[in-house]
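Continuing the batch. This is chain 6 of the set; chains 1 through 5 are on the previous pages. Same settings as before, nothing changed between runs. Recording input and output for traceability.
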Amino acid sequence: MAFVATSESRTLPALSDDEVLRIRNDFPILSRSVGGQPLIYLDSGATSQNPVSVIEAEQEFYEQRNAAVHRGAHLLAVEATESFEDARETLAAFLGAGSDEVIWTSNATEGLNLLSYAFLNASLPGAGSAAARFTLGAGDEIVVTEMEHHANLIPWQQLAERTGATLRFIPVDDAGVLDLGAAARIITGATRVLAFSHASNVLGTINPVKTLVGMARQAGALTVLDACQSAPHLPLDVKDLGVDFAVLSGHKMLGPTGIGVLYGRSELLNALPPFLTGGSMITTVTMERAAFLPSPQRFEAGTQKVSQAIALAAAANYLTETGMGRVHAWESLLGQRLVEGLASIPGIRVLGPAAGQERIGLASFDVAGVHAHDVGQFLDSKGIAVRVGHHCAQPLHRRLGLTASTRASTYLYNTTSDVDAFLAAVAGVRAYFGA
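Output for chain 6:
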């Protein structure tokens, strides 16, 4: 059965350190050590860890119900199909969507590429009159933001290049905040697509989704939300936000790798031409032509990611049972602790919102005189795992005058002690390198 979120799970108070310590027991990897030091995992913004329930869900599928879905009539195939579609219902409930609006992808990057190539296919002969709203050409504009992950930039660059449309971007200010005044000028009647991140994977900024959606609607543009850094950390209701499409990756929200979700409003998905074609997404095939199923099957050609989808549903259940409101409140506390602590250390420049301003539970920073890769290696020697580099956001780093930064990202299994140990280690970086 699909798990459905309750109002109670969304309104409970923040987690506490004692509760988090109990939660940690569900994550086997957090009990290991690194170089003789207890592991402090602060890289969930890249890939989160998996609770036992997620690991067991995938294992149990292979042990008990492994079969091709939507194909066989034997018992295993029926059970596999039921589990696969139950997983879809679970993710739909998690997102506030309909089950026909949830498409399985390999990751968010594939979901964004699926959209951009489907938009390109809308101009092909045989796409149908309903697909005309997705066609792009000279004079049309695609708008992104200067803080986008490459996955939500390059597909739109490619689409603009192939169609003759113009790609524009909403700039950020020196603090990394979107310039909404510029957005109001950039989003015009020529705008066909507005693609933007809900929360920045570098800055921790939570963008004003409804404001941006309102601008796009007034201009008649479609909206695409990158929810990779919000779906794992914030209560998310795509209908309430009003977005047309959204993507997420399972490995960032306690799920396995190789699974993601593309959400789209059903009327849009059913008008959109497919991207991948083959088995399982057709109604009738002759030697000359084929007719396609409605969403979601029309976008799920071939053998699907069955065990991964089931495991991702287990992850969504784990988060829902914990309470996404509680997760967000806890990570907000950890995010503020990170920013306040980092800002108090001499020679540290924190990127993104200042202390006291809303952010998700991550912080990226630059250490004067020390390269980010050296910072990461120093922290690793202390058993602390962080991300270093440009975080697949080179244009944003360039705007901020950097080539790389160090990022610490928390999740529901991190304690205040984790953050304090990290801050104590960072305080010793410049002295260690003689900076």
